Amino acid sequence: MEDIYAELLQKTAAGDQLAFKQLYEKCSPKLMSLCLRLMQTEALAEDVLQEGFIKIWDKADTYTPGKGKAMTWMSTVIRNKGLDKLRSLKTRPVETEAQFEGLEFTSSDLTPDSMEDMSQEMQGLMACLDTLKPSQRECILLSYYYGHTHQELSEKLGKPLGTIKAWIRRGLEDIRPCLN
Amino acid sequence: MPKLDHNTQGAKRYQNPEVFEQLAIEYAVGSMQGRARKRFEVLMETHFYLKATVEAYENKFANLVELLPDAKAPDSVWAGIEAHIKESAPQEEKAPWWKANFFKQGFAMMAMALIVTAVMLYNPMSNHNPISYSAMLESDTNGPMAFTKIEKSDMMIKVDIMKDVKIADDMVLTLWCQPKKGGEPMKMGTISNKGKTNIKISEKQWHHMKDIGSLAISVDHKDKTSEKNPAGKFILKGQLSSSS
């Protein structure tokens, strides 16, 4: 499938501000959604999104299309920014009224229409995740979308810390051959 | 889980694909955390196969973003990005001196270069022009409570109280800027004990921000809000950091 954002990212690398704005307009809704889940507060999410896009502008010339899609590269830049920010805080901020939680949007009972909208890479990843036990799948997805620590997952799911660590370790061991 | 160790013997273990593949996937998914994550980042700087493996897994997991519902960011986010681009726009490209008719303009250029160098050395702000400052304000007992952002694009201090601060009816919260080198704190205004408060700042106050080390919020009696120094105690504090 053609990577619709790669061209915009490459123009951005050449200093094309109009292309960068188009890239922001097209990609920021998904990336803001990721920031909201990682950071849990709108103010921090906005801050991470802004700093992340500034990094994308500054580092666009390091993107190599052969290594992956533009959107996955940008998601990684922004998510690592968010994880760095979380690491710099003594304790994780908590929104008074939890708005961003759960994994309903990852439900494996997706309609054929929504499956059609997915990239081949995503369909492949979904197939790999579906081979895992539900508890392993849940822990891995919560780690990815919410940046939860093992301790946070233990409290959230009401399971012992050792169990959570084992679920994640085994889950990642099991999914590796499928991903590769 | 394989133990992460950064000594030589430990580093050798990462040449074992079974070990480093597992660590790489844990890093990529985000389940490797804290000091282990930091140590792994140091190792990645010198072990390119680790970096390449992590990047490959990061690329695979990053597809998960496709499943997220859209969420529109406020216009202020793009305004901040745009301000950064304008601030950091490179000066007009100059041809190298050997191509630039040096011998016709040589002395004038040399004189100009000397002046620019002198100004840059003299002016400590010449290589650092922040476009925003931010601070996470934390309480000693409840952790992060408020996020504060100060942006040049709208000359506003935005305080977002994330967990309501309980105060008596006759009390009020006040925001202060504390200079890096000590001395009297600068009063910025009173703020609400819940939700968001915006405080307009002047050009002069914006320029002062480079000398500010931390922000703090005090609880004061309502009848003492006109005082220049905090009368009550500080309940939230946080280091101010700049981004340019």
Number of strands of chain A: 0
Under CATH, the topology of the largest domain in chain A can be stated as Rna Polymerase Sigma Factor, Chain: A
Strand content of chain A: under 5%
Count of domains of chain A = 2
The shape of chain A, in one word, is globular
Give the amount of beta strand of chain B, in percent. 25-35%
Task: Give the class of chain A from helix and strand content and strand pairing.
Answer: mainly alpha
Could you tell me the radius of gyration of chain A in angstroms?
Answer: 17 Å
Kindly report the spatial arrangement of strands forming the biggest sheet of chain B.
6-3-2-1-9
Radius of gyration of chain B: 25 Å
Low-confidence stretches of chain A: none
Protein name (chain A): RNA polymerase ECF family sigma subunit
Family (chain A): Belongs to the sigma-70 factor family. ECF subfamily.
Keywords (chain A): Sigma factor, Transcription, Transcription regulation
Organism (chain A): Cocleimonas flava
Features:
heterodimer; A: 180 residues; mainly alpha; Rna Polymerase Sigma Factor, Chain: A; Arc Repressor Mutant, subunit A; 2 domains; 9 helices; globular; B: 244 residues; alpha+beta; Immunoglobulin-like; 3 domains; five-stranded antiparallel beta sheet; 9 strands; elongated
Word description of this protein:
Chain A is an all-alpha fold and 180 residues long. Chain A folds into two domains: 1-98, Rna Polymerase Sigma Factor, Chain: A (Orthogonal Bundle); 105-180, Arc Repressor Mutant, subunit A (Orthogonal Bundle). Chain A contains nine helices and no strands. Chain A is globular, with a radius of gyration of 17 Å. The two termini of chain A are 20 Å apart. The model of chain A has no long low-confidence stretch (mean pLDDT 88). With 244 residues, chain B is of the alpha+beta class. Chain B has three domains: 8-65, no CATH class; 75-122, no CATH class; 132-243, Sandwich (Immunoglobulin-like), CATH 2.60.40. Helices cover 35% and strands 26% of the residues of chain B. In chain B, a hairpin with a 3-residue loop joins strand 1 and strand 2. Chain B is elongated, with a radius of gyration of 25 Å.
